[in-house]
Each structure stands twice: as C-alpha cells, then as structure tokens.
Amino acid sequence: MTVSIGEIYEEVQPSDVAPEGGQIHGPRAGWKLALSSFVENRLAVAGAGIVVFFILFSFVGPLIYHTNQNSTNPINAFLPPSGAHLLGTDSNGFDELGRMMKGGQAALEIGFFASLIATVIGTLVGAVAGLLGGVVDAFLMRIVDVMLSIPLLFVILIVGDRYNGATVFSLSIIIGIFSWLVSARLVRGEVLSLRVRDFVFASRTMGASRRHLIYKHLIPNALGVVIVNITFQVADTINLLAILGFLGYGLNYPQVSWGDMLSNALNYLSDGYWWVVYPVGVCLVLVVMAFNFIGDALRDTVDVRLRRR
Amino acid sequence: MTAYLIRRLVTSLIVILGIALVTFLMTHIIAPSPGRAILGDRASRAAVNAFDNAHGYDRPVWVQFGSYLWQLVHGNLGYSYKLNQTVDSLIAENAPHSMWLSGISVFLSIVIAIPLGIFQAVKRNSVADQAITAAAFTAYSMPQNFLGILLIGFLAIQWHLFPAEASQSERIIPYIFAFHSNFLPIATLTITAVAGYSRYMRSAGLDALAQDYIRLARAKGLTEPTVLRRHLLRNAILPMVTLIGLSIPLLLAGNLVVEYLYNSHGLGLLFINELGNEDFPTVIALTLLGGIATVVGNFVADVALTVADPRIRIN
Amino acid sequence: MRAWIKGARAGAAVAAGALVLAACGSGTGSGGGGTGGGNTSAFNAPGGYGKLPTQSGTPKKGGIVTIAESPGAGPNYIFPITPAANESVYTIDQFQYYMWRPLWWAPQGATPTINFPQSIASAPAFSNNNKTITIHMKSGWKWSDGAPVTSKDVAFDLWLTKAAVKISPANDGNYTPGLYPDFITSIQTPNSTTVVLKVNKTYNQNFMFYNQLGQIVPLPAQAWSKTSASGATIPFANLANAEKIYKFLNAQSGKLATYATNPLWQVVDGPFKLKTFDPSTDANTLVANPAYGGPVKPKIAGIDNVAFTSTSAEFNQLLSGNLDVGFVDFSNLPQVNTLKAKGYNVWGYPDFGFSYIGYNFKDPTGDFNNIISQLYIRQALAHLQDEPAVIQSKGVFDGAAGAAYGPVPAVPKSPFAPANALTNPYPFSISAASNLLTSHGWKVVPGGTTTCQKPGTASNECGAGIPKGTALTWNLIYGNSPAVIGAQDEIWASNAKKVGITINLSSKTFNYIISNLSDVSNPSNDKIWAMQDFGGFTNSLYPTTNELFNTKGSFNFGGFSNPQIDKAIQNSISSLDNTAVQKEIGLVTAQQPGLFQPNADLVFAFKNTLSGPPASFADASQYQFSPEYWYFKK
C-alpha cells in the first residue's frame, strides 16, 4: 500500500508502457527543456518554495527561535499560546513551535533517507531485471509482484513492532527496504522501452560496449523516471510516517517527528489543547502537498508523450 | 483473450503462493515459538518445549510450510492464542464491518468522482475546475489520520454534529444502518478516495475529449449531454475499473487508520489491537488476507478491463 | 496503569499470590464496622482525586447497574481456580467474586486489609509453631441451592487446587511451587464449621494468613464434586478423584458460550448469579441472588457489565450518560468537569501496589551491571525523580496519583508500611544526585556525558568493575501504553541528562516487554536492556517482595541480589516475627532495586443517581466493585 494515491497513477498511466516513438532528445537538451518547463509551472515553483521554507524552518529555525527542547518541564505542560510560547507548550512542557521545528527535521530526514534507500534498491533491481531479462527478470518481477501485493503499512507495522529501535536511521531503513518496489518496476519498464529504441540499437550496431550503453544511454534516460519517483516517494514516506506516529509506532523520545506529535491528537482536541494538533497537521499537509506538486511537474517535464501535446 | 486470462490467472496464483511464503517466513522469524507467549512468564523452558512439540513448532521449516499451506487451502488461517479463538472466526466477526465501510465509501466516491472529474474536464481551467483541483490536491496530500482529526475536531468536538466514534454495534445490520454514527468514518474514507479518483477522472476525461470519436459525435450534431453520457462517460469509466481494483491496498490501509481513529469494529482495528497484544498469528493472517485481496483486486480489474476493451490485450 | 498489566497478562502481576487478595475489597455495611465506613474525608486525602460519593437519598428496590469493563479485558474464566493464562482482576474480582466469595474478604474501602464482618470465616488460630491452623466458619452463609457453606467446601477447594497444580503448575495463576497449596500436609474437617490445616513447616503467621490462605474460595462440593454433567457426586478427598473433578470443571469453564446456561455455575454463595454471557466480547449480566447469606443483601436487581474496545469508546459512553460506573482514563481527566456536569461523581485513589523501572543487574553493556550494583548510583537515580511535579503535571497524572517510594506506597496506607514508605528517603534534588556522583569519583558534565575519573573500590571511587572514562549511558525500554508510563520516564530521563546521565528511551508493547525482557527463564535477552518499565505490580495484602527481589525470586528478572534483603525476605515468610515484612520493605525501599514511581489513581465516575456507603464505592480503587451495597435513589 501507499498512503497517497500517487503510485496508482504510475501504474495506470500509460507512461510505463513503451511510448510509441516520438521525438527523442539527447539527454542535455532534455534537461534544459525540463528545467524551463518546470519553472513555467507555477505550482511546482510554489512547491519548491514550500519545501525550501520547511527545510529552513526545521534546520535553521531553531537557531533563530531558541527554545528548550532538552529538559522537560512537567509543571508547564499544555500552556496555551502566549508571548513566551508562540504556539503554547506540549505534554512535556516543551515549546510547541520549537517542537515542530525538531519534528520537521526528523520528518524531512526520514523522508529523504527512506526515499533514497528505496530508489537505490529499486533502480538496481529494475535495471538488473530489465537488462538481463529472461529468468532473472521473471524471478525479480515475481518478487516485486508478491511484495507489492502485501499491504506495506501492515508489514512495516509488524516489523516496527518487533525490531524497531525507533530512531531516524532505523525507521528510514525499515521504510526504505519495503518501498523500493514501485521504482524497481518503473526503472525496469524504462530500461525495457529504451532497449528497443533506435538509438540504443544504433549504438549497438556501431559496436558500443555494454558499459557504454548503460552509462551513456540507459541511465540518463531512466534518471527522469527515478527522480519523479523519488519526489513522490518523499511525499509518501512523510505521509506514512504521520500514520506510523499516529498509531504509536513512530520515533521515541527525545526524538520526535510530526506524526508522533499527533499520536494523542484526539484526546488533546477533546481536552481543548488545539495548539498541539492543528499547527503540526498543517505542516504535514503543506510539505506533502509541496512534494506532490514538484513530482507532478517533474513528471510532466520528463514525460515525452505529454511534451508532445 | 482466454489464453491471456489463463496466463493472468496462473501468475496471480503464483503471486498468492509467494505471499503465503512471505507471511509464513514472517511468522517463522518473528514468532517461531508461540509457547512462551501462551504459557506465560512462569512456564519452564521444558513446558514451552513440550508445547512447541505438541503443536509441531519444532518440525523442519519446509514441513511446517507444507502444513501451513495445507491449512490455508482448507480455509484455516490459524489460531489466536491471545483471544482463544480461530482467526477465521475473528475475521468472520470483523470482516463485515470493514467491508461495509470500504464498500460504501468506494461506491460514494465513484458516484461523486466521475461527474466531478468529467465536469472538470469539460470546464477545463475554469475557476471551478481550479478550485476543485486545489481541494482535491489538498485532501489527497493529507495523511488520512489528520483528515479524520480535522473532521472530528470540528464536526464532532466543536459543533457536535456527529459522534466522534463509529457505531459500536457488534452485529452488522445495526452497524449498517447507523448512518449518523458512521458518517465521519465514511466521510474520511470517501474524501480521500474522491480526491484521488476525481483527479484521475479529470485527466481521463481530457484524454477522451481529444479523441476522434468525440469530435465525430460532436460533428454529427449530437447534443453535448448526449455526447458526454454516451461517449465520454462510457470510455472514461473504463480506467476507473482498473483504478478501483488497484486501490485495494489503499483501502486496506485507509480502513486500518479510520477504524483505529473512530474505534470501529473491523479488521483494521483488530490488526492494531492484536499487534499490541503480540498476537502474531492474527496479524500475519490479516496481512496474508490483505495480500490476497490485492491480487484478486488486480486480477478482477484486469479481467474487467480486458472484457470491456479488447485493445488492452497488448502483451 | 497496573490495571493494564493485570488485565493483559495476570501472570506478571502476581507477586506471591498477590492477585486474589490484592484486589478484593469491600466497604462496610451501613451498620458494619471497619475503618473506612462513612468517613469520606479519609479517601479525599493526598494522593486521591476528586470526591467520593456521599450516602444520600432513599433506597429504591431494583434497577440494573451498568458497569464498564476495562477495554479488551473482560472476564474469560468462570471456575474460581483460575489458570495463569486467564487470571486478572477483571476475571476474578469483577466477575467470579460476585458469585463465589473468598473465605476472607478484603480490603476495607480503599484500605488494603481484611474486612472481617464481610468474611465467611473469622481470623484463623495458629498453634504448634504456626504449623497448625484452625479456621472457624461463620453460620448463615449458604449456597443458592439451599445447602450451607461448610468446612467441606473449603476442603473441596483445597483438594481441587492441589489437583490442579499437580496436573500443571500453570493451572493456578497464584501458584508458587512449595507454597500454597503444596505446604498443606493435612486437611481435616472435625465439624461442619471447622477446618484444621497442618503445614510442613513454620511460616510467618501474617504471611500465611494475609498472603497465602487468602486464596481460599469455598466451592459447592455438593454440586460440583463430580466428573460429568449428569453424574453423581463422588468423594473428592483424594488426589486421583480431585484430578478427575478438576479436569471436568476446568473443561466446563473453557466453554464460554455455556457460562450462563450451565447449571454448575448457577450454584453460588455470592450476592449475584450469572444471567447472560457473550463469549465474543465477554460482556455479561448478573442478577441478584435471592438466597445470598452474607450480611448485606443486594438492593439492585442486577449488574450489566458492558464490554468496550477502547478507553475512548468507554469515555464516550460515560459522556452520553449510558453508564452508571466507569473508569476515567488519564487522558480524559481534563474533561472531568464535563462528566460532573453530566451527573457523575468522579473519584480516584491508588490501588495497593507499586510502579517501578526495573534495573538489569545482569546487563554487561557499558558495564551497566557494575554501575547499577553501586547503591550510590541507585540513590542518585532516585534523587533525579521529581515525584511531586510528575503527579501535578497535566501532561502526566494531572493530580491523580499518590506518592510511592518503595514497593509499599505511601497511599493507600497499608498496616504493613514501614516509616520510609511514607516519607521520601531520596527526594528530588539534582544537586544531591550530582554530589553523590562527584563524591564517588565521577566528573559530572551537566547536559553532557558524565564519566568516571577515579576507578577503584574505595569509598570515594567509582566502584568495582567500572573503568576510567566509563560513561553513564543506558537504554530504557518502556511500555507504550498507557501513555503515563512513557511520560514519567521522559521526565526522569530529562532530569538525568542534567547530571550528564544519558537514558535512551524506546517503547515496546507491554506484551513484548513481559515476554522478552521480564522473562527470567529466557536469559538470552539479558544483554539488550538496562532498564525496563512495563508498569508495576499489585501487592498482596502482605507485601513481601519474595518473588521480585529475592536472589532466587521467580520474577527477579533483573537479577537483583542482596544477602541482607534475602535474609529479611526469609524472615517475612518463615519467622515468628510479626513485623518482619515492615523490616523487609524498609530495606528494599532504602536499597532501591528499581526506581519506584508514583502510584497512579484508579479514577472512576459514579452516576449520582446511584448511592450507598462511601466505602463501598472506595472499594473500586482496589479493583473490587461492591454493588450489593449500592442502590438507586428514589
């Protein structure tokens, strides 16, 4: 499963079926085109802006807005927003705004790390399957089929329950090693379609080595798909993290991510402590949305079919 | 077509076998000896060993896998030692609630998403289109738990319009008719699904509008509603079938979050509760079931699509 | 918090037969004696929460009292000799005891001691160096089939318990090999109201009475002494027959669906009889037993025990006014005013038990075993706990907890409490902790990493096996539910950081901890944890820590070993010194084998249409409901 529906588009949209010919750009020209069309897309620029803002908010913010995030202050738990605490305090008496910055660090870090791990594994598996073909391909793809069918959230919860040390690192690994399936499929699809394309065929007939093929043609062309996927993957991971935290399988104190901050949200709301719920929820939505904007725009720019239109 | 379907069926069965292998290995690695968990802290090592022996947990792995498969084929998903019941009976108690929640939400989201998407496609780039797109994008970027928290926070806690929890009825019939109690859980699932489906429906609609047969229909002088109904709707609906089949994993996850959030009886809540109980036979059986549901969903989606649109059979 | 422990897995909650006695309780009748009766101010003392209902109004006959069961913790075993796997206060106190009364009833309101007016027998007489015990039963108690409750019924229970543990030690959750019922060498019933027991050696008489014999629950021999539903009764006073009878009754008790229909379970001596039982949720209803022979006859018509899947579901039902009695989770305390507005009295008080963080004296990681063996380290750790702040904090207990400094808490006050159980020997003080470390050769770096500067065994050095440069960095694995466990531990860890001690927290489910970390028979995990906190234990009325802190204790999962304490425990069990257990607890409190934490209140909401003697409501804090005292107001 994924938490956002993004991955389904990948599957249904015909982009992983071999494009029916069309113009072929050399890699460099493609990137220029991509960049310009990305910048033209206002939503994508807004998305990038939001992401930059939250990176600054989370990593630079604590340098400007100094709060005590180390020693608990039980007597000052759940103070409403005031001049001293712009967004009040949480159950441990920590400043909520400062906590959100800390939570943002973990959410973004896990989002990036897990996506990176997933993409690296996925690209390798997909490339190997696509290039070698035959039995290896069939075997790897059946594994992907099997793992893709087992609900990801369930598996991560079970594994997390059993082995989780619940640090940024361990959570990134757990999410990463169970999220590479889609990128493996996409990369394989891309490799397969590239293999049959003219320029690869051409280089082959010209006697290019296999290594040359991979580095000069396949990787640059598959990279687009990979980058699109990594963007969606970050959005999905942050989303998943929100759910894991909410269900109580997130990070452990003193680490915190936005999802963990929502784990008692319902009780907080019924007790009237809105300031420990809504602001952090809004951060989550904005960041996930920003990555989706960027992902959509990137997909449009790398998708040859759309560009033709 | 038949050959394709048979091949597709065989692949599905292989995948199901693979899922069974994975869930079996999970059980084996995570909880190789349920004896300790069942007999408690005070039981001696000898007692635990005796239990494992009596229940066959000390046999070779492949023998255990064989008997696991044998049990699965006979519809026996295992035994929850924590709850003193077969997993089958737990599923029988909880599945109807989950199926109703998912079913009604999928139904509602289709009923809402299709006209919405087509409307957006037709009124492309209008203010309404952009507003809907923005709303859909927001809903679709929102973790489902936060969507639920918002709904509960405002509609239940602030304005007291709906209860904050689903109907607590164990029996399915009263549960189904508890529309007021179940409004928020259904709304949470539906909003998320509509956000995804309508977005897809919009682009499918745009694709279809650009096709020759629509232009032809318009050229023939058919009225716009007729064109939309007869041609656009029918052709654009096709991919929806696949989309729904493919969204089963999402529905499962959504159900888990929503059932936990609204404390609604169902497989998702059972999963979370039993995970906390370290009741691995139950959680792993539910994972297996989720996997099988996904494969079946994909298969049905493919078959439906193939039957409806012969052009799909490319490979 | 301990409710979870007992509910989820009673096995871990039982320290030396704690459970049966620990949580039985009853108020005194309107005319009855006992300390708790009528004096509400006694319960509205420090450590308590809210106000206990006062007695008012004119009793109305009839009415059904609706009581919330703890989520996921309904009763699942009806036969009173309860296996370890099924044992919990929800099965025993809040279900079985309505139907089958223990020989001695305890405590009195919120006070953990025996309530004689409510008991079937008077205090036992000890003779022959405590090796002969004579029990006199009162008249007037009878079974619902008309037969009187006699000495034979006591003997029947003893024989069946002997048979049960012979078949498997797991058949009685309270069983400790060598103790009850193994130590009983002869059971005689010279007449229908006298039981004479002989035991194999001298035991401390308080231990024997308050800790061991309290497990006796007379069973209806005239109805149950058989091996099939249709068969005739057979003699039970030999092990062979007793085993057959036990197997039959145990098998009947496994059939949850037949609980309400099986004629066996309709023969009761308690105030209520089972009417319906839902095997899938464990929800059940009971009706008043018209033949009840106890001193206070029920005025209500019955009890409806309602099952819930979550605390929030239960709280919502309280808010909508659908429950007469229900617990209030800590997370809901800020909404207590709403509850009061809905017509509830809200009151809480701690049960007799303790919560603590267990230390692992066997964990060699970073020389933790050597570090924690130093008393000054454990004292420093105790000084780092700010109990008053934790109790007050809205983020933790919100006022609903009592202080506790050792295995016997300050509240509720036990007759066996030593002096240092009532005043904190190691009050919160960062500087005291820091001084202890500094004076033992540590370089304290507030907020950083404190390291050992002076290795060695002299009194101003770190201690044996602690090399120079050793850091004070450990892990603490705590239970993820209820949330107050983690909240307290976070505050403690944060205070520890102020003297340069790093405590790395991670959470696990309760079940994970008790089946992987607190498992004495599974030492392979000894290296993966330095500290653990799954909650705590409910004490027996006689709170010896025999199984927990005795070197050979069956729950001594941290491997704590102190010859002085071993000796004191030995005295608590088998000396003739009637104050032995006070001495033992005093020592344990001073030695800090774990970090003792505040004792959480069990907070309840009682509908204000319901009334009765305040003490009967106070019983709830000890997990025992006493609805036979309650009535609806006219």
Strand content of chain A: under 5%
Portion of residues in beta strands of chain C equals 15-25%
How many beta strands in the DSSP annotation of chain C?
A: 23
Largest interface: A-B, 49 and 59 residues
CATH class of chain A: Mainly Alpha
Q: What low-confidence regions of chain A span 5 or more consecutive residues with pLDDT below 50? A: 1-28, 304-309
Shape of chain A: elongated
Q: Major sheet of chain A: size, sense and barrel closure?
A: none
Order of helices and strands of chain A: HHHHHHHHHHHHHH
Distance between the termini of chain A: 32 Å
Largest sheet of chain C: 5 strands, antiparallel
Structural class label of chain C: alpha+beta
Overall helicity of chain C: 25-40%
Helix run count of chain A: 14
Architecture overview:
The complex is a heterotrimer of chains A (309), B (315) and C (634). Chain A has helices at residues 6-12, 27-40, 42-64, 96-132, 134-149, 152-163, 168-177, 181-195, 198-205, 210-247, 258-261, 265-270, 278-302, 304-308. By secondary structure, chain A is mainly α. Chain A has a single domain, classed as MetI-like fold (Orthogonal Bundle). In chain A, helix 3 (42-64) crosses helix 4, helix 4 packs parallel to helix 8 and helix 8 (181-195) runs antiparallel to helix 10. Chain A is elongated and about 75 Å long. The two termini of chain A are 32 Å apart. The model of chain A is unreliable at 1-28 and 304-309 (pLDDT under 50). Chain B has 315 residues and is mainly α. Chain B folds into 2 domains: 16-76, no CATH class; 88-313, MetI-like fold (Orthogonal Bundle). In chain B, strands 1-2 form a two-stranded antiparallel ribbon. In chain B, strand 1 and strand 2 form a beta hairpin. The longest helix of chain B has 36 residues, at 87-122. Chain B is flat and about 85 Å long. Chain B starts with a helix and ends in a 7-residue tail after the last helix. The mean pLDDT of chain B is 82. In chain C, strands 1, 11, 12, 14 and 21 form a 5-stranded antiparallel sheet that branches. In chain C, strands 18-17-19-13-20 form a 5-stranded mixed sheet, sandwiched between helices. A 4-stranded mixed sheet of chain C has the order 3-10-9-8, with no helix packed on it. With 634 residues, chain C is of the alpha+beta class. Chain C is built from 20 helices and 23 strands. Chain C is globular and about 75 Å long. Chains in contact: A-B, A-C, B-C. Chains A and B meet through helix 1, helix 5, helix 6, helix 10 and helix 12 of A and helix 1, helix 6, helix 7, helix 9 and helix 11 of B.
